[in-house]
Design brief:
The protein is an alpha+beta fold. It has 3 domains: about 100 residues, 3-Layer(aba) Sandwich (Rossmann fold), CATH 3.40.50; about 60 residues, 2-Layer Sandwich (Dna Ligase, domain 1); about 80 residues. Helices cover about 30% and strands about 25% of the residues. It is built from 10 helices and 15 strands. The strands form 4 sheets. The protein has a 5-stranded antiparallel beta sheet with strand order 13-12-11-14-15, with helices on both faces. It has a 4-stranded parallel beta sheet with strand order 2-1-3-4. The protein has a 4-stranded antiparallel beta sheet with strand order 5-8-6-7, sandwiched between helices. Strand 11 and strand 12 form a beta hairpin.
């Protein structure tokens, strides 16, 4: 039986830089990693099914886009794999309304929020309490990225117009949290949770530009609450790899405004201005590989590609 320490399934072309870094880092650390794409998926599934292949840890970044990858996680898990973000958990964790209720109940600091039924079930105008302030945020419970999000809603009419966009989805009406300024930066943070490790970053909500948040900055600005907050969210949503958005408001409180985003956008900043800093990608890669056994000599990742999955 051939054992693979870490396999990453991927489909999105912009993942190429991340996957290349992951495979190269694994080989450099004496670990055997492989990429699974649509080109070798059938072979991998066959090898797993007959017991000729064993994967210790699987990161599947393709299953949410391509149904053909659905059997991969269960098959690998039956052979003993640890699945990073099991598909059913990731699907469940994408429900922002569910996450809001769970996080609020477990003590995660969240902004005042109203959850509205799908327009198709109840088209009547909802109450918009004054506590939300004006303007406020309207976002679909199942949306990804900024799709369907209204940042400057002021009236019930704005809410009704937004609800018609995804008429089968619940919506969140949420107080718009204004970040304070820290050394001239907006105090908005996107925090990665990766296989038990927490990696916080500055993330400008206007420009969408990342920067690493260094430990001395955390201490100087009193941001020690970022890490325990994200660890608590991880326990609530049951994911191994996600990001949260947390804001330090003008009142000095940390508030989580987006609970769990997965799969994470891992475009490299060296290739895309609004991508993740390359140094942060290296830390993510190290976290994904952490705890795996080291081999005396792992073949270079290019040679692994030729030997293993062609």
């Amino acid at each position: 039986m051939r054992e693979i320490d870490l396999a990453v399934a991927w489909e999105w072309p912009y993942d190429a830089g991340f996957v290349e870094r992951l495979l190269a880092r694994a080989a450099g650390q004496g670990r055997l990693a492989m990429a699974i794409t649509r080109h070798n998926l059938e072979w991998v599934l066959d090898e797993l099914a007959v017991g000729r292949l064993c994967i210790r840890r699987l990161l599947d970044r393709a299953v949410d886009e391509q149904p053909a990858f659905r059997p991969l996680g269960p098959l690998a898990e039956r052979r003993g794999a640890r699945i990073l973000n099991r598909f059913e958990r990731q699907e469940r964790a994408c429900d922002k309304a569910r996450n809001h209720l769970l996080c609020a109940a477990r003590g995660v600091p969240v902004p005042p929020t109203v959850i509205v039924s799908p327009f198709m079930h109840d088209p009547s105008p909802p109450d918009v309490p004054a506590a939300l302030g004006r303007p406020f945020v309207v976002k679909p419970a199942s949306g990804s990225g900024s799709e369907g999000v209204v940042l400057d809603a002021r009236s019930v009419e704005d809410v009704q117009q937004a609800r018609r966009t995804f008429w089968a989805d619940r919506y969140l009406l949420q107080q718009r949290v204004q970040p304070c300024l820290l050394d001239g930066r907006r105090a908005w943070f996107r925090v990665f949770y990766v296989h038990g490790q927490v990696i916080p970053c500055w993330w400008d909500d206007v420009t969408h530009i990342y920067a690493p948040l260094h430990l001395d900055e955390e201490m100087r600005h009193g941001l020690s609450g970022l890490r325990p907050t994200v660890r608590r969210i991880a326990r609530v949503v049951g994911l191994d790899f996600f990001t949260s958005e947390i804001v330090l408001g003008s009142d000095g409180r940390l508030v989580c405004v987006d609970y769990a985003n997965a799969p994470c956008d891992l475009r490299l900043q060296s290739q895309h201005p609004d991508g993740v800093p390359d140094g942060v990608i290296e830390r993510i890669v190290d976290a994904l590989l952490s705890g795996l056994p080291r081999r005396e000599a792992a073949p270079a990742w290019g040679r692994v590609a030729d030997e293993v999955y062609r």
